[in-house]
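User: TetR/AcrR family transcriptional regulator. Structure?
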Amino acid sequence: MPPAKKPPAAPPPPKRRLLHRDKLEAEIVAQAVRAFAECGYEGASIAAIADSSGLSKQNLMYYFPTKQALYRRVLDDVLDEWLARMDSLADDGREPHAMLRAYIRAKLRFSREQPWASRVYAMEVIGGAQLYGAQIRQRVVPLLRKDIAVFEKWMAAGQIAPLNATHLLFAIWAMTQSYADFAAQMALVLDRQQLTGQDFDDAEQLITRMVLAAVHVAPQRAGAQQA
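Assistant: Predicted structure:
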């Protein structure tokens, strides 16, 4: 009598399959971030990203059918984290100086912890944001306006000096993001392999001092409050 056939193995539970997919996609995106940062969109190779992820090109394309789809996912993740750090400025629970210090610290932490991600975003913008401009306009502009409204509220209350909040935010972005986008140049000038934690601490102190000096309460307004 022939042996009984074993029943087919049951597929893994849906939750386990989803966890596996999420983990695999996260690994693909992590490898893609560095590839796009080092080679740009045109120079990055799907085959090379697949190989560094331990997959065949065909397997990778099951999750991301095109290079553009993978690139957009990378930029979506970068922008999610970048905007989350920007959003802290609108916390009404703290006074302006404390919020600005926290904002600068968060932006520098992003540059330190996610340098490849910052460089991918910078390269897209430097190239004219041809593939991601619409998303930047839709997501960054509303939050920028929200942050500008916070500055205007502070100015109206006499908590900070009158200034152009838009350009102050541009300056903060430039100063903090340069520690990711131009880290190689900074390390060369400093004659070391890479920037250190102390470099980021020193940058935070200096940038914070510069920004707080720019937003000081105007003398005449301070005098009026004391009268």
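The chain is about 75% helix and 0% strand. Residues 38 and 44 are 8 Å apart (CA to CA).
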